[in-house]
Specification:
Layout: H1 2-70, H2 77-81
Length: 86
């Protein structure tokens, strides 16, 4: 009976000293990987949005130039800057 009690105590010590810290490290590691992934994804998407914004501005300028040429108006960046074509 003493041997059975000894093994129970040994199992409890093993659980407390090895398994719980390993679980804690695993949870913390998974959380940090998840946060890092979220940050990288958001930074990547912000870069894509800025690129899209620049492309749209170039398209707007191009359309404004074409509209002015069609109507015989000399192109000036002031027209676009003042928002005459928005």
């Amino acid at each position: 009976m003493k041997i059975n009690s000894f093994f129970k105590k040994l199992f409890i010590c093993l659980t407390v000293l090895l398994i719980f810290p390993a679980m804690l490290i695993n949870i913390i590691s998974n959380y940090s990987v998840l946060k890092n992934s979220e940050n990288e994804i958001s930074n990547n998407n912000i870069g894509k949005l800025k690129l899209t914004e620049n492309m749209l501005e170039q398209l707007e300028d191009s359309v404004a130039k074409d509209a002015m040429k069609e109507h015989g108006i000399k192109f000036s960046q002031d027209y676009v800057a003042k928002g005459m074509f928005e």
